[in-house]
Amino acid sequence: MNQRIELKVLGWRRTLLLIWLLAIVQAPVAAASIVQEATAKSSDYWYGKMEIEGRQFRFVVEANAVKDGAAPEATLLSLDEGDAKFDLKDVVISDTRFEFELPASQAKYQGPYDPTTGVSNGTWEQRTLRIPLRFERREEFPTDAPAEVWEGTLNAGIQKLLMRLRVYRPADGPVEYYIDSVSQKVGGFIAKGALDGESLSLEIPALRGKFTGEFSDDGESLTGKWSQGLALDLEFKKVAQATAAEVAAARRPQLPQPPFPYRSVDVQFPSANPKDQLAGTLTLPTEGKRFPLAILISGSGPQDRDSTLFDHKPFLVLADYLTRRGIAVLRYDERGVGKSAGNHTAATTKDFAADVAAAVQFARTQAEIDPQKIGLIGHSEGGMIAPMVAAMDPEIAWLVLMAGPGVNGEQILYSQGQLIVAAEGGDAKAMATQRKVQERIFAAIKQNSAGEWDAATLEKISAELEEEILAEEIELSDEDRKNLNVAIRNGLTQINSPWFRFFLTYEPATALQKVRCPVLVLNGGTDLQVDPKLNLPKIEAALAEGGNQHVTVRELPNLNHLFQTCETGAISRYAQIEETLAPVLLDTIEQWLQQYR
Question: Of the candidates 246, 271, 290, which is a domain's last residue?
Answer without folding.
Answer: 246
